[in-house]
Amino acid sequence: MTSATEPYAEFAERLATTTLLRFATAGSVDDGKSTLVGRLLHDSKSVLTDQLEAVERVSLSRGQDTPDLALLTDGLRAEREQGITIDVAYRYFATPRRRFILADTPGHVQYTRNMVTGASTAELAVVLVDARNGVVEQTRRHAAVAALLRVPHVVLAVNKMDLVAYAEPVFAAIAEEFTAYAASLGVPEITAIPISALAGDNVVEPSAHMDWYGGPTVLEHLETVPSSHDLAHCPARFPVQYVIRPQSASHPDYRGYAGQISSGVLRVGDAVTVLPSGRTSTVEGIDALGESVDIAWAPQSVTLRLADDIDVSRGDLIAPSAQLPASTQDVEATVCHVADRPLTVGQRVLLKHTTRTVKAIVKDIPSRLTLDDLSQHPAPGQLVANDIGRVRIRTAEPLALDPYAESRRTGSFLLIDPADGTTLSAGMAGDAFAEGAGAAAVVPADEEGWDF
Asked: What local confidence, expressed as pLDDT, does residue 446 receive?
């Protein structure tokens, strides 16, 4: 936050030079996620005075002597009345070292789909565990979701250490159990921190009650963990969002393709291919913020101009000719089902991938993941809300899909109900965790014109 003595221009310049970290909190019900987020905001001085006053008034009306910091994120009336988190609460704050976008996600099993939403763009997940209860089913579920979504950094925050007399053996046992489970899922980095969100121990300031712990506080770790949002090292991917053809007197022949670079770097002179047509050309120019530039990188929004007058439209993907993604109509993926209505074999859906939306059919649901022991339940026939399972989908037109393990942006997609536009499932192309896909299944042809 800016101070009264710091000019806004200097504050804006300082923010521009700091890195951005997106992170999500998760954990079982009453593990203290919202209290941790509130403590982070409060102790890092990222709470406005009127916000804190409002929380103090509500807390006093409940007979509480101290402000209930969880109210800083539980914004819905139902959340405040029940003392739970229902929706994903996004908060933005900054310290002198880094800017943050955090997503406080629900802990109830029926809101696991909301955790998928919050973690889908996160570079770090903070999974809370109540020190009195240890690792429970929902803890394992959230660890599995983080691994499935390829979140590169996971923090285990063992909360409520004040209620177990700050005992080191309690923390060590929980950390060992969770680390072994998360490592089996392929989580690349796990950091365990003992905290008390209510008392503030090891959240922003080191705890005076746990001298046996020599690691970082939660905020210190958030400020120093490597940020992985720089996608410049990945192959370039440019989904076309809009075709610009002013046909004006000043620009009679201008043809540009606008969009956001999903990954990689594009330069003037690069040989590129337009998918799914396969037509090739060369980047003749790049326009950014009204000026011509020689180079652009993710996640910049730019307009590309190609040397050849070829057919390019919204939904096409422009990529370097030497680093093309595979085009396919047969998609094998893992999906998190988020709708109340089930996803069934033979169901007609729309598949939205980057800026492209195509018709598709769910050809098979080979398995559903059982998160308590990571076993695969074969041939479930359908997926219901909060289920995670493998699917095989046939699309009406080819899609340029990267494996999700290589690109979270161009390897993800949504399944949509064509009748009313409801989002059904969030999909991740390729293998789940470190396991390969199963054998292909033969499904009878559709009889109503949707057999591709």
From this structure: 42
